[in-house]
């Protein structure tokens, strides 16, 4: 049975597509939010509802390894300093980053990716 309530929130889904990253590219990592009842935060109602973009939790310009942030030799792993993340909750519980948005900009072109997994490297300082 289809709901006819005006406050129905949009469903959320994700798909990961990976491409190799090269050179110095700025990045913008975001985490989507939910309200107190667990629903995805949205502006508007019904088919017009849109999930608002939240402030970035980390930003930077990619550098060559070992300078942070950089893309690891596998071409798929973004390595950032834990201290560059605005809230320790994302560092101490890296599962909160799963399915976060990752925006990579080169020139005027921005590509959006979803974080598949995240882990804290014990060799990096908090």
What is the H/E string?
A: EEEEHEE
Q: List segments where confidence is low: pLDDT < 50 over at least 5 consecutive residues.
A: 1-6
Separation, N- and C-terminal Cα atoms:
49 Å
Question: pLDDT average, as an integer?
Answer: 75
| Helical content (DSSP H or I, runs of 4+) | under 10%
What would you note in describing this structure?
The structure is a single chain. By secondary structure, this protein is mainly beta. The chain has one domain. Helices cover 4% and strands 20% of the residues. The protein is built from one helix and six strands. The strands form two sheets. A four-stranded antiparallel beta sheet has the order 2-1-5-6, with no helix packed on it. The protein has a two-stranded antiparallel sheet with strand order 3-4. A hairpin with a 6-residue loop joins β3 (70-71) and β4 (78-79). The protein is globular, with a radius of gyration of 17 Å.
């Amino acid at each position: 049975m289809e709901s006819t309530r005006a406050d129905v929130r949009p469903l959320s889904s994700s798909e990961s597509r990976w491409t190799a990253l090269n050179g110095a590219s700025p990045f913008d990592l975001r985490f989507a939010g939910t309200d107190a009842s667990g629903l995805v935060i949205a502006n508007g109602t019904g088919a017009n509802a849109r999930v608002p973009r939240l402030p970035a939790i980390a930003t930077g310009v990619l550098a060559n390894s070992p300078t942070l942030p950089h893309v690891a030799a596998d071409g798929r792993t973004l390595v950032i300093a834990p201290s560059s993340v605005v809230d320790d909750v994302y560092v101490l519980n890296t599962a909160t980053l799963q399915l976060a948005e990752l925006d990579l900009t080169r020139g005027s072109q921005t590509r959006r990716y979803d974080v598949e997994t995240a882990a804290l490297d014990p060799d990096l300082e908090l």
